[in-house]
Amino acid sequence: MDQAELTTEQVLSRDIPWETYMSTKLISSTSLQLLRRYDHRSESHRAQLLDDDGPSYVRVFVRVLRDIFKEDTVEYVLALIDEMLAANPKRGRLFHDSTLADEDTYEPFLSETRHTHMTGFCIEYPVICFSNWVLNKLNTLVYVHSDSYQLLWKGNWFIQEKSCKILALIVSVRPKNQNGVVSNGDASDGKKPFTTIDDVLIGLVKWLCEQLKKPFHPTRGVPTAINCLSTLLKEPVVRSSFVQADGVKLLVPLISPASTQQSIQLLYETCLCIWLLSYYEPAIEYLATSRTLPRLIDVVKSSTKEKVVRVIVLTLKNLMSKGTLGAQMVDLQLPQVVQSLKAQAWSDEDLLEALNSLEEGLKDNIKKLSSFDMYKQEVLLGHLDWSPMHKDPIFWRENITNFEENDFQIPRVLITILDTSSDPRTLAVACYDISQFIQHHPAGRIIVTDLKAKERVMKLMNHENAEVTKNALLCIQRLFLGAKYASFLQV
């Protein structure tokens, strides 16, 4: 059977030759007793065993994964651990029990070297000499090779997926006082240092990014990676490593409207990742310059899933005060989207509160965006867009005298833009703003005529872009008609 399509139930139906492993010293007699007591028992019986002596079973599972390479057995033990944690995720704390202080519980998943013991010997690589009988036995139990063997990287898909899920869970439930230097205790007596928490987290991030780039499984690789990331991005080390690995850009294409239940869950967990990253400044820098914001707004417009809407609204609320993101949200018509969302019947009070908070924040942004200083900065940079102040009558009424500053500097720059810019949007906005100056300033028509704007605007009436010709026509009409009649013209 294709390992990628294996199920936990199929794996757990196997009979593992534990007695043979003991006879070749791959497991101890104590481990055999524990495994026989646990193996193929009812869920309630296993639960009782874990309640009574959970750390002992964890120790046995970890040692089997460390010492035995036989794929069927590795899959089996991973399935046992996964089943145990799925029934009660709090059991992940068993891996951090004080009685396991001498056990590196992460080693089988990430260690560069794995070894085992047999008949008192440590199996070294390469194997130099064993009797034919021992070699035959060994070949039925383990794969002997000279490469390092990391479950997270070198197993089949079943092994990789289970390893990722197990690692993510046991890391997420570790004691809060664990300092990140070691996993469960301190290595001593000159032994090899234990796998650190940072080692585990960085190793997981590397594997997760690889799944997002080139999924090991065509349909489950990406969902598995996103599911684990949505848990792990709470960790500062994971956020830092993920951003350094350029992982944020791998999330953006996944933010798109979803219809099926599976795709909705993937979308939700992707947005959850973005929300977690919205608390991390280096990630925000990337979010601000990518297509993240328009994609989030496109999704929230059409989504009917409350949990998806909630996490996006909370993300937008976090991002609103960061740099120019608030201005971008206004440009993307988010205030209107929020109004539409508020009109819908949501049962989640936190969502309604977040929508109200987002709405207030957007109003504040609109006020800031309508200031003349912001407008002046935009004009002087020479890159114009339809930001709110351009079509806000209040802005023009309250700021029209500011256009007289520095010998009408802003009208002069707007007219210069008509000659120098090749961007259709900039040309259209410049024509519109000149028409607004003509309409609202008492001497607007005379000033614009003296600055020789008429010829430049008329040239643009033949522009290939419809938006440019439309606003050039409006400007010429206001220039010829004067303020008395220009107020009747509509865009």
TrEMBL record:
Pfam family for this entry, one: V-ATPase_H_C
Its job: Subunit of the V1 complex of vacuolar(H+)-ATPase (V-ATPase), a multisubunit enzyme composed of a peripheral complex (V1) that hydrolyzes ATP and a membrane integral complex (V0) that translocates protons. V-ATPase is responsible for acidifying and maintaining the pH of intracellular compartments. Subunit of the peripheral V1 complex of vacuolar ATPase. Subunit H activates the ATPase activity of the enzyme and couples ATPase activity to proton flow. Vacuolar ATPase is responsible for acidifying a variety of intracellular compartments in eukaryotic cells, thus providing most of the energy required for transport processes in the vacuolar system.
One annotated GO molecular function: proton-transporting ATPase activity, rotational mechanism
Subunit text: V-ATPase is a heteromultimeric enzyme made up of two complexes: the ATP-hydrolytic V1 complex and the proton translocation V0 complex.
GO cellular component assignments: vacuolar proton-transporting V-type ATPase, V1 domain
Keyword GTP-binding: no
Family, as annotated: Belongs to the V-ATPase H subunit family.
The entry's keywords: Hydrogen ion transport, Ion transport, Repeat, Transport
Organism: Phaseolus vulgaris (Kidney bean)
All copies of domain ATPase V1 complex subunit H C-terminal, residue ranges: 368-480
SUPFAM superfamilies the record matches: ARM repeat (SSF48371)
Keyword Translocase appears in the UniProt entry: no
Extent of the signal sequence: none
Name of the featured protein: V-type proton ATPase subunit H
Xref: InterPro entries: ARM-like, ARM-type_fold, Armadillo, ATPase_V1-cplx_hsu, ATPase_V1-cplx_hsu_C, ATPase_V1-cplx_hsu_C_sf, Cyt_B5_heme-BS
